[in-house]
Amino acid sequence: MIVLCWSWPSPGIAGRWRNSPGRVHGSPFHLARVFHGELGSSIHQYLQMRLAHAPVAVLDSDGALTAVALEAGFATPSHCTAAFRARYGITPSDLRRNVRTATAHELRRISTADMLDRI
Question: Which InterPro entries match (predicted)?
């Protein structure tokens, strides 16, 4: 049962939440209790934690955002993007692009300041 819980499809799971306990022959209360007992957090807390780590994963990885979304446990990249945008107000690709642009500008500023100090 825990394998099912760890591979929970996406943060927007209201309908799936009601249907999933039947797949493991239990009630929603039992599934939530077992999940909490094994992992030390509620299903909601787990989903929020997964989403909280998403910006770090996006920025730490140079790989495809699809791989980041799937590694974070989202069923599809579009689920990840929708949840990310709802929580942070920006898409993962926009975050990556904005940080890289800001970093490039900062590096140019630092290197220009360094060159001017040497003159």
Answer: AraC_XylS_family_regulators, Homeodomain-like_sf, HTH_AraC
Query: What is the spatial distance between Cα 43 and Cα 6, in angstroms, rounded to a whole number?
Result: 9
Half-sphere exposure of 45 (CA within 13 A, CB side): 7
Domains of the chain: 2-118 (1.10.10)
User: How far separated are the first and last CA of the chain, in Å rounded?
Assistant: 67
Mean pLDDT of 103-115: 67
Distance CA 25, CA 52 (A): 31
Question: What token pair was written down for 66?
Answer: 């699809």
Structure tokens at 83: 């949840």
Please name which of 86, 20, 18, 17 lies closest in space to residue 51, comparing C-alpha atoms.
86
Report the predicted TM-score, pTM, of the whole model to 2 decimal places.
0.61
| Residue 115: both structure tokens together | 């060159």
Give the helix ranges, DSSP H, for 13-91.
Answer: 14-23, 28-39, 43-60, 65-71, 77-88
Amino acid at site 39: L
